[in-house]
Amino acid sequence: MPLFEYTAKNAQTGQIMKGQREAQSQDDVVRYIRNNRMILVNIREAPKTDRKSVV
């Protein structure tokens, strides 16, 4: 599953937050951000080298 990096602004406090989310598509990440009352600033698929393996 692709890993996406995003920057979003909290709609209530205005705080800028950065995060990563694994999802089927970019639209799924946008939906997650909106459902958590954030405003999307930037989103991109993380380069494969940025992905951390889980053992």
Summarize the model shown:
This protein is α+β, with helices and mostly antiparallel strands and 55 residues long. The chain has 1 helix and 3 strands. 11% of the residues are buried.
Mean pLDDT: 91
Count of individual beta strands: 3
Rg on CA atoms, Å: 12 Å
Instruction: Pick out the low-confidence regions.
Output: none
Give the overall shape, derived from the CA principal axes.
Answer: globular
Q: Based on helices, strands and strand pairing, what is the structural class?
A: alpha+beta
Could you state the order of secondary-structure elements as H and E? EEHE
Give the spatial strand order of the biggest sheet: 2-1-3
Q: Kindly estimate the percentage of residues that lie in beta strands according to DSSP.
A: 35-45%
The major sheet is characterized as: 3 strands, antiparallel
How far the N terminus sits from the C terminus, by CA atoms, comes to 16 Å
Q: What percent of residues adopt helix (DSSP H or I)?
A: 10-25%
Number of helical segments with 4 or more residues: 1
How many separate domains make up the residues?
Answer: 1
